[in-house]
Automatic annotation (TrEMBL):
The organism's place on the tree of life at top rank: Bacteria
Pfam families (alphabetical): ABC2_membrane
Organism annotation: Arthrobacter ginsengisoli
Presence of the UniProt keyword Magnesium in the record: no
Residue ranges of the TM segments: 50-70, 77-98, 118-147, 154-182, 256-274
Localization per Swiss-Prot or TrEMBL: Cell inner membrane; Cell membrane
Membrane protein topology class: Multi-pass membrane protein
Alphabetic keyword roster: Antibiotic resistance, Cell inner membrane, Cell membrane, Membrane, Transmembrane, Transmembrane helix, Transport
Family to which the UniProt record says this protein belongs: Belongs to the ABC-2 integral membrane protein family.
Organism placement in taxonomy: Bacteria, Bacillati, Actinomycetota, Actinomycetes, Micrococcales
Main location: membrane
Annotated protein name in UniProt: Transport permease protein
Domain ABC transmembrane type-2: 44-281
UniProt-listed PANTHER family: INNER MEMBRANE TRANSPORT PERMEASE, TRANSPORT PERMEASE PROTEIN
Length: 289
């Protein structure tokens, strides 16, 4: 009898994100549910994964590439632009949906106990499902213009995907938990989503920022999404340039040796902070919802 008592676990306690890996079947069900609910009654369904980035690309390309003539100083500007849009869309969708995930699943949370982290993590997987078709379009466009990446660049693309997923999960855990108590969190995240496209070199080249900020350029590089977009450009845009076009500076100094490790540490730190914040606030989710 004493041996059985030692194995008892306090109701509602868990191991946080580690429980998500132990409940992969539940995670799969939640991802499937999120996709079905999102496209219920939709005519295009998953085709919206192509339509939204395509419209964004056309607007930015015409407004900035044609009207402001940014394409003149940036070879293959269409590839440069779309590579940044695809990655930033993945991050913003992850963060926005993770922030709303707990509130949106209030009915389920009130009825049964399951690892609350499942909900934000499920939204990241759903966003990854939307990211894949956009990535395939990007790869196809790159191949058309002579994309010849190295093994290191392909590995870097996978690493950046994982880093952005970790970053979005960490921030999603923080804002998702706070949003249960203060619904203003959704408005804050909406502002972050609006700013992040302009706070990273998606629509412009990083040298423009360096020319303005000078010795303070390192502050700009502390943004993990800035580094992620720059590496994505190195992976997908730089291998499409010919020898004459490669005379321009395509990536900032120390991008892979200094800034990428720093961005990864910041992302992991935010994931750790997000888990701590989420676990502390998750105790009263059912009551607050």
């Amino acid at each position: 009898m004493a041996g059985q008592t030692d194995q008892l676990v306090r109701p509602g306690s868990g191991r946080g994100l580690l429980d998500v890996f132990g409940d992969r079947f539940l995670l799969k069900l939640l991802v499937r549910k999120e996709i079905k609910v999102r496209y219920r009654g939709s005519v295009l369904g998953l085709l919206w994964s192509y339509v939204k980035p395509l419209v964004q690309f056309l607007i930015y390309f015409v407004a900035l590439g044609v009207f402001l003539d940014l394409q003149r100083g940036t070879p293959n500007y269409a590839i440069y632009l779309f590579a940044g849009i695809v990655l930033v869309n993945f991050f913003t969708e992850c963060l926005s949906n993770a922030t709303r995930s707990i509130v949106d699943n209030r009915d389920l949370i009130r009825k049964i106990y399951l690892p609350r982290e499942l909900f934000p993590v499920a939204t990241v997987w759903v966003s990854a499902a939307h990211f894949l078709p956009q990535l395939l379009v990007l790869v196809g466009a790159c191949l058309v213009v002579g994309w010849t990446p190295s093994i290191l660049q392909l590995a870097a693309a996978v690493l950046i995907f994982l880093m952005v997923a970790v970053l979005a999960t960490g921030l999603g855990l923080i804002f998702g938990a706070i949003n249960v108590y203060f619904r203003d969190s959704e408005n804050i995240v909406d502002m972050i989503v609006m700013v992040v496209t302009w706070a990273s070199p998606v629509l412009y080249v990083w040298t423009m920022v360096e020319n303005v900020m000078g010795s303070w350029f390192w502050v700009y590089q502390l943004n993990p999404m800035t580094v992620a977009v720059e590496v994505f450009h190195w992976v997908f845009w730089e291998p499409t340039l010919n020898a004459e076009q490669l005379t321009i500076e395509t990536i900032p100094p120390g991008l892979l040796t200094v800034w990428l490790p720093i961005a990864m540490m910041i992302s992991l730190g935010l994931l750790f902070l997000g888990q701590l914040t989420f676990r502390r606030l998750a105790v009263h989710f059912a009551q607050e919802l």
